[in-house]
Design goal:
Length: about 725
């Protein structure tokens, strides 16, 4: 046996001990990793070896109040993503070029994304189906790895610009950014799902592994109180009014006074919710390229702003409702007591505050006549009898220093005087709607309270939230916040508002088939050379059993017809009430119709010979115009206006034979002319006219100089004295 020295034995023992120590340490470390930290490292390994792609939930559909008309919906589209590490390095440039060709994108931008050291990156969103299919064929044919095409959702607004300020829109991530889309985002958005796949250490997807799919939970559907047909009616009238009167913007709200339901809400200019980042006016388009990013952002925010609820302005004379209610509730005056006197102005402190008709004072008046004449001195005298504390009590009663609580984002509060710092002049000017500010919506809510018998209702936009499965169904109930006046006071105010339409400053809103109530307004914002006017009007119809309240404001009108609410807004509100009530199938007030309607129905002469048509027209009291040479046996192929329309006897029917081109005529401007003069001007232009009222032409329903077919009907609204409109 060979000799082993002691030192060698010690070295061997030391080595064995060291090895045992290392083994013990490794065992301890292994125990720590496998047992104590097993959950941590399992999760980390899972994260490294798997990638998850989000599966977007289908956003809920938004319907109008019928539950049938779709205002916003999500449709399937495609998203193209890449896992850069799974794309072959030597093929990236070629793949980038092919992707750019198929998707019509910039090659360099795609290549930059394919070279990034990230787990996953989006190449393109909202890809059309045809392009997605072409891309899939390219991927399959060339066995491309790392590029995938998945289903995505695209938000679509079928009616384009209709109701855009109320609906709002969504961002690229399908999150609501404005309007109903933002306010009800949690209900509409649902919960996303995901797809989980396995990858190797190099970040490449491993073959022969099964993807895990977790389904998305779709969003809930929302049903609005708004009727798309009523919305279309008010947007038609509003756009015309803003453009004709060269106003900065306009707003209209239609409410059901008994419940607080908003049946229509419009602002103009509007925008397309499908393209919310596209400038909405020619002026903005022309200056867009020269604007800074901050200027563009501000311009877009102004474009999206729902001014009917977010902008406050001096309301003008529609605010006299508050002062009138306070006077009657506090028994300061009975509505027909002649306790007031208009000398054309009232001295308050060192200020002489004028009536709008200072040049021809109203003289002795009751509160009813003060409302009818929109006489500022009456309301200043009422406020002096009432005092600051009591006046501010009614401001708070109408919730004018707070929000209405409508279910839309961005609502503003009214801006009132601080009661502790308020002066006699502040009280006087506030009494007729100046030096304070409220929103168009607040004005609408105020008049709903009069129309429904004295109750303040909370306005609302959404009436129902429901899931696609039908398991979840939430009805939004109307809310009566409080009673703010007696039924007697409400009835007295309503009767005064009816007289205002029949005999007072609101005659411009009078219509033939319904008795309506209404109030004019001309607010001022700024003073001196910086003054901007607000033309306003509120109408209630039918007066006997109110179904709707229509509130309209035009801001900063600069057209030839001035800035008075009676002139600019009264006829528009009257026409809206007439059209909406007929759409809602509300029975007409026949007594009104029968006393003012002398029209006869246009007969049907299409398919008749020219000789037969002449006889039929003559028997009905109409004349015929012909498009070219007609023989007695020529067959009439077209007539304007069509049968069923109603016109005064003596009106003209334009007739055509097969092959003749339509003849058009420019619409004359007859505003401010007498009704008889206007009739002759239209007749010479080959156009028919429907006359509402008597006296001088206040408005015409077809814009001057517009080209329309000869024989078409233009409606003019007349009042006895244009100078009597504030």
């Amino acid at each position: 046996m060979p000799y082993v020295s002691i030192s060698t034995k010690k070295r061997v023992l030391f080595m064995l001990t060291a090895c045992m120590g290392v083994v013990v340490i490794l065992l301890c470390r292994l125990l720590f990793i496998q047992v104590i930290k097993s959950d941590y490292y399992s999760q980390k390994a899972y994260s490294q070896q798997t990638r998850s792609k989000s599966v977007e939930a289908k956003r809920g559909t938004i319907y109008d109040t019928t539950g049938e008309r779709i205002l916003a919906q999500s449709i399937s589209t495609n998203i193209v993503t890449a896992v850069p590490n799974s794309v072959k390095k030597d093929k990236k440039e070629e793949i980038a070029q092919n992707l750019a060709d198929i998707l019509e994108l910039d090659k360099e931008e795609i290549l930059k994304k394919l070279k990034k050291n990230v787990s996953s990156i989006t190449i393109a969103t909202k890809v059309e189906q045809a392009k997605a299919e072409e891309l899939l064929r390219y991927i399959s044919k060339n066995e491309i790895t790392g590029i995938s095409v998945d289903e995505d959702m695209l938000r679509v607004y079928p009616y384009g610009t209709l109701l855009s300020h109320v609906l709002g829109f969504v961002g690229t991530d399908n999150q609501g950014l404005a309007g109903v889309e933002a306010y009800y985002d949690k209900d509409l958005s649902g919960n996303p799902g995901k797809i989980v796949a396995s990858f190797d250490g190099g970040g490449r997807e491993t073959p022969f592994t099964q993807e895990q799919y977790i389904a998305a939970e779709d969003g809930k559907d929302v049903v609005l109180t708004i009727d798309a047909s009523i919305q279309a009616i008010i947007e038609k009238y509003l756009s015309k009014a803003v453009e004709e009167n060269i106003a900065q913007y306009g707003s209209i709200i239609v409410m059901r006074p008994s419940t607080g339901e908003v049946l229509g809400m419009a602002n103009y200019p509007t925008f397309d919710s499908n393209e919310p980042f596209t400038p909405n006016t020619q002026e903005l388009k022309d200056s867009w390229e020269n604007m800074s990013s901050s200027e563009k952002s501000e311009a877009l925010n102004q474009m999206w702003r729902n001014k009917a609820i977010s902008d406050t302005q001096e309301p003008g004379s529609t605010f006299k409702l508050i002062t009138s209610v306070a006077a009657l509730e506090e028994n300061i005056v009975n509505i027909d007591d002649k306790l007031f006197y208009c000398s054309g102005k009232v001295k308050v402190g060192t200020w002489d505050i004028k009536c709008w008709r200072y040049y021809n004072p109203h003289g002795s008046e009751s509160l009813r006549e003060g409302i009818m004449n929109s006489c500022n001195p009456v309301f200043m005298q009422v406020s002096q009898k009432m005092g600051i504390a009591k006046f501010m009590e009614y401001i708070r009663a109408f919730n004018l220093d707070s929000r209405t609580g409508i279910d839309l984002p961005g609502e503003a509060t009214g801006i009132m005087h601080n009661e502790n710092a308020m002066t006699e002049v502040d009280l006087a000017t506030s009494s007729f709607g100046q030096t304070i500010q409220i929103t168009t919506l607040q004005t609408a809510v105020n008049y709903c309270a009069v129309a429904n018998g004295g109750y303040l209702v909370q306005p609302y936009i959404v009436r129902e939230i429901k899931s696609n499965s039908g398991n979840y169904d939430e009805q939004i109930e109307s809310k009566v916040l409080k009673q703010i006046m007696s039924e007697t006071t409400a009835s007295n105010i309503m009767s005064a508002l009816v007289d205002t339409v029949n005999l007072g400053t609101a005659k411009s809103a009078k219509i033939s088939d319904y008795q309506i109530a209404g109030k004019t307004a001309t607010g001022e914002n700024g003073r001196g050379d910086n003054t901007k006017y607000l033309a306003g009007f509120v109408g209630i119809g039918p007066a006997s059993n109110p179904e709707i309240v229509v509130t309209m404001n035009l801001y900063d009108p600069k057209g030839p017809s001035g800035h008075g609410g009676a002139t600019l807004c009264g006829p528009v509100v009257g026409s809206i009430i007439d059209e909406v009530l007929k759409y809602l199938d509300v029975q007409t007030d026949y007594a009104v119709s029968e006393t003012e309607n002398n029209e006869v129905v246009v007969p049907n002469i299409t398919g008749k010979t020219y000789a037969e048509a002449r006889q039929i027209a003559s028997e009905s009291g109409f004349e015929l115009n012909i498009s070219s040479e007609f023989a007695d046996d020529t067959i009439i192929s077209k007539q304007v206006p069509k049968s069923g329309a109603s016109l005064e006897p003596g009106s003209v029917i334009m007739t055509y034979k097969e092959g003749d081109e339509s003849q058009k005529s420019g619409v004359p401007d007859v505003r401010n002319k007498s009704a008889n003069e206007a009739i002759n001007i239209f007749k010479n232009a080959g156009l028919n006219v429907r006359v509402e009222g008597t006296g001088y032409v206040l408005t015409q329903d077809v814009t001057p100089n517009e080209q329309i077919e000869r024989g078409s009907i233009v409606t003019i609204k007349c009042v006895d004295d244009l100078s009597e409109l504030p």
